[in-house]
Every structure is written in structure tokens, then in C-alpha cells.
Amino acid sequence: METVLGIDYPTWWFLVIGGLFSGYAILDGFDFGAGAWHLFFRKELSRRIALNAVGPVWDGNEVWLVIGGGALFAGFPIMYATLFSSMYIPFMLFLIFIIFRAIAIEFRGKEKMLWWRKLWDICYSISSIMLAFLLGVVLGNVLQGIAIGENFQYQGAGFFEFLNPYAIMTGITTLALFMAHGAIYLLLKTEGRLFAKLTFLLKKGMIFFMVSFAITTLYTLLYIPHLSDDFKSNPVLFAVPVLTFMAIANVPRLANKKNYKLAFFFSSLTISLLLVLVAVELYPNLLFSTVDPKYSLDVYEAASSERSLGIMLLFVAIGGPLVLGYTFFVYRTFRGKVKLDDHSY
Amino acid sequence: MDVELLARIQFAFTIAFHYIYPPLSIGIGLLMVVFESLYIKTKKEDYHILAKFWTKIFALTFGIGVVTGIVMEFEFGTNWATYSRYVGDVFGSALAAEGIFAFALESGFLGVLLFGWNRVKPWVHLVSTIGVFLGSMFSAIWIVVANSWQQTPAGYHIVGEGLMARAEITDFWAMVFNPSSVERISHVWLGAFLAGTFLILSVHAYYILKGRYVAISKKAFKITLVVATLASLAQLVAGHASADGVAENQPAKLAALEGHFEKEAAADLYLFGWVDKEKQEVTGLAIPGGLSFMLDQNFETPVTGLNAFPEDERPSQLNAVFQFYHIMIAIGMFLIAITLMGSYLLFKKKLFDKKWLLWVFVFTALLPQIANQVGWFAAEMGRQPWVVYGLLRTDEAFSQAVSANQILFSLILFMAVYTLLFILFVYLLNKKIKHGPYEEAADDDGNDDRPLTKEISEVVTG
Hints:
Chain A is mostly helical and 345 residues long. Chain A contains 13 helices and four strands.
């Protein structure tokens, strides 16, 4: 098997996807998080500023979803096909809400009537909440395992099987994580009364996250033993959860010191580390079969051919720095507090 | 209803809806680059205003294109799992290239394009506009490459059997330059240019007819008409090359497009007609031996007909494929005629006196859209019963794990939310057109604080 730096291609691609998903979760995370808080802001101007804080970037953030999804399809087509067809309903709901959210953002500012704006505010906020929740639900199902049988066929029954207690818990935790993250983002983008209100909301968000994260962790340790196998066999990996907890603890500390830039960095780091944690828990598997472990999919079974992976790794090596370059350029152009002008929503 | 049919309906519905927008973005993007370059070069404010105005409309089509595009990507996995496992190795690298090289470029610069007019230097802004436009062109390349591979697979080998079988890439460039990709990409690009330019022509023709923003609209109309004329003429070449390619690579599809049944016989070229599948007859107006002549410059050359293929390897909806294809060609011919006539009158400096012709241009905006839609329907339905031509049948490609109820549920939701999205699109497009190219709108209390440029005083005074 071909390797680069001692790591084989499927594992490299696993890392690439991890990176893309982290990028997506950090970016659309603050985006959804900001949307989830939206109804907590009472004044029309506050809502408008909050919406315009994500205005120039939300579309670009969703690009990471397209690329992440494409990367999963390209590198692990069998995982992609199996996961997406098994989790049909949550993915379809996700699509519907992501479109609905875009509609709400675009529609909101087009009429001046108060009821009109309130209606779209509600749609915007609910879809943001549901999107964060659904991402967590899918993640929960992946962690817990899916009823995959022979020939990669999903054997689960029922419309709502994806909504099991563990998935609900990871869904809520994801929502809480994004809300805390989104609040910090908004703190960077706002001033005055809205800023003051957000400092207060951030505290609530952090508590919400800590509690739901603690419950999810406990649930995982008690009921989903296959996830801690890797840690038992390789104690060095224990560093990952330790680092994660340290990153989490840093966020409120920095927020109290009013150092929101660094707090945002640590909040982003928390999201990445949580995904690293997920990756460590899963690897080398991608999907656990709850029917029989022999039907589980690992990175080697699910991967594309070495040639295909080799080509795509080359793409990433060339394209990755480019993407980072212009993402940086865009954020630099729009740095600082929100100023409403003619081009705003 | 069965799962396969529902999955096909859902895919057809969502892709047809999606395909309203990307061609508009590509076509409008081209003219945005033209207008903005003219502004940088001539420093004339009119071009700046035009670039800004069409950027706003571009933003609308682009945004809808993105969200409806995510749906397409997801549906491969959700509804076509067997297909995704089968083609992932090949199709995946094209999709990955699209994401990394095209889409990220597009969306990355989009923020600067839309919100950066006052934040960056004019030339940096132009670079962003070009970046977005090129990104959209590259997107089209990779998506059409992937689709062309389904029409004319190349650069792969098959590994495994039954449900485990899949195509693996052996030669990336043979996959990219598969026998149909170059002509199909050109065909799709030109179709997109036509969709965009005809929308621009339509809006400015409307302004001229209504006596609003007349001077600036005349400028825009002239420039856009030149591009549209070139595109519609080039489309004749690209379209013909595509048809030649189909004849060579997908004879069953060509036979369906042209309604040709006999195994090996000289084939007629129908201008229009009606296909009776049972009787194997086409009733309509035809040039005898015309198809043979088009393909081989000889009225006698035999062309492979539908009967040369087993019943279960022919497209089933023959009349639909035939009609879609012929509607597309008729529209293409009409677009050539109308742009040539417009260009001639422009040359003679009589164009803007012909009110009726301007009205025709107002409504013609719909025609390239229809041609794009029916063209794709003909291409995709003509490929049936294959999803990957000659390799994987559509009735084996859908997700076994998904039930009919689940698809019905999502299909209804998509119809609801897309209806809303379409209303939004029409409403916003209408609003932007009514608002006009100038930044400052009339205030709510009726105070118009726009600078009284020549064309506005024209409107005010007469």
C-alpha cells in the first residue's frame, strides 16, 4: 500500500475529511449559532446587525459543506452512499432547512412591515437551530452505529429511527456548542447594548453546553463501549480528551477577561478537538454496524482506489492553500464591527 | 408508486429547478466582467452602474444555485446509493476537483464581489469578479465532465461483481477528456451565456420601451447583443458537434432523438413531428436522408436505428425525447435569427426604433431557459435505460434502503420549499428590475434624490 510520511492514502483522506468537517463546523457553526440566538434579540436594529454579522460570509461557509460532502463522496463512496441512504430523513430535513434558512435571510429585509420581519426572523432562527441539531443527530448515529447488514444495506425500520436518545443528546450538545461559538462571534462583530446583552447570553450558552456535553460524555462512556476501545488500547490518545477539556475551560476564562478574539480561537479549537475526539473514537472504522460487527465499514473497505485517492490528495495539496488564501482575504476585507450600508441585508 | 420512479421524479424535479440558476449566473457573470472591465478602462460611471446592477441580480441567482446545488450532491448518496458506490471512485475525483478548484474560488470571492465595492480598490474588485466568473465556468467543466463520463465512460475498469461492482479510475485525463466531454462543455457554456445574455437583453429592452434609464440601457443592450449573437452562432457549431458525438458514441440515443427506427437505413431529418412508438412511425415534416447528410455529408449513408438494439436497451419515452430535442433545436434557430436581425439593425442604427423587436427581446429571455431544460431532458432521458451508458442500469442504481414513503415525504417538502423559493426569486427579480440600475431608490415619501442624469430628465420631462 502506498504511503506518504508513513501514512497510507485512506488514512490521509480520513484526515483531509476531518479537516474539512472541522472547517465547516467552525464556520457554519458560528453562523447557525448566531441564528439560534436571533430571537433573543428584541430590537429590530439588533436583529439586523446580528443578521449582517453573518451576511457576507454565510454563503461562503456553506461551501465547506459542499466540499466536505464531495470529499466524502470521492474518497469514501461506500461510506457516503451507505450513510446518506440510511440517514435519509435527517439529511432531507437538513436540506429543507438549509434552503429555508437562505430564503429567510434573503426575504427578511425586503419589506419594512414589522410582521414580515418577525415572521422571517422566526423562520431564520428555527432553521438555524434545526440545522445544528440535525448535524449533531447524524453525528450521534454515526458514533453509535447504524443497522447495516449485508451488501451495505440499511436494515433499520421506521421513519424516526434516527431520533434515538443518544442522537438527540448529541444533537442538543452540538446546538449548545454552536450557540456558545456563535455568541462569541457576534461579540466580535457588535457594539453597545447588543454587545452587552451578548456577554450575558454567552454565559448562558456556556452553561448549556457544559451540562449537555457532560451528559453526552457520561452516556457515551456507559452505554457505547466500542467508542472507548481505542483509548484503552492506546493510552497516549487520552491526551485528546484532556486537551479538549482544557480548550473548553479556556473559553469562559478568556470571555471573562473580555479577550473575545482569543476566546473565539479557543472555541474554534474546541470544535476541532471534539471532532478529533470523534475521529479517534471511530478510526479505523467509519460506520459501525449494529447488526453485526462484520458488516462495519472501515476506512479501507469504504475507500476509493489508491489511484483515485492519490489524484485527490494532489488536488488538496494544490487547492487547499488556495482556498485558505482567499478565505483569509475575505475575512480580512470584512474584519471589524458590522457597519450597515446600502449593500446590507 | 415504486421507489425507482419516485427517486427519478425527485431527482428530475430538483435538478431541473437547480438548472434554472447556474446558467444565469455564468451568463450574467460574463457580462459583469465585461461591464466592469469597461469601467476600469474608460472610467465611465455608466459601466460601473451596469456592473453593480447586474451583480445584484447575479447574487440572487448565485445564492439559489448554491442551496439547490447542495441538494443535488446529497441526493447522489440518499437516493442513488448503488450508483454512488459504483461511480464514486471515478465521479468522486471530478466532484472533488469541482469543490476545491471551482466552487471555493467562486464562493470565496463572492463576498468581496457583493459587499466589497467600497472596501477594496477597483482593480481588486475586478479580480474578484473575474474569480467568481471563472469559478462558475470551472464548476460547469467538472460537473459536465462527470455527466459526460456517464454518457461515454472512459479511463476506468470494473472491479468486483453484483452489488459490489464498481468502476475504478485507471487514467484520470482519459476520464476528464472522455469522448463527449469537450463538445458537451462548450455546448453547456454557450447555453449558459445565452440564458444570461437574453435576460440582460430582456431587462434593458423593457427599460428602453418604458422610457426608463434609456441611455444606459442602450449601451448595455448593444454590448450584450454582440455577445449573444456570437454565442448563438457558436452554439450551432457546438450543438452540431454534440450531435455528431452522440451518433458516434450513443447510437441508441441519437436514434431516439431523431425518431429513427430501421436497423440500418438512410435516415430523414425531421423539422418537427410526432413519434408513435407502437407503430414505429414518425408523422411530420422531414428532409429525406437529411440526418444521413448531417452525419456523413451523404444522403444515402445508413444510420443505426432503434431496432438494432434489444427492446430493454432503448429509451422508453421516445416521443418525449424526440420533442424535447426538437424544441431545443427550434429555439436555437430562433435565437440565431433574432440576434442576427438585431445585430443587422444595430449596424444600420435602426434597432431602437423597432418597438416590436424590442418586445420580442423582452419575452425571449424565457427561451434559452426552456432550451437548456429540454436539452438536458433529451440528453438524460435519451441515455435511459442506462444511468452509466452500457454499464449500470437506472433500475439497479437507486437506494435499496430507502422506502417509497420516505421519498414521497421529501418530494412533497421539496415541492413546497421550492415553490416558495421560486416565488422569492420572481419577487426579488421583479423588485430589482423595478428599482432599476441606480443605487439610490426613490424614498418612501416620494422624494427622488437620484442625480438628474440625462436619461432621468428625459423621463421626467417627457
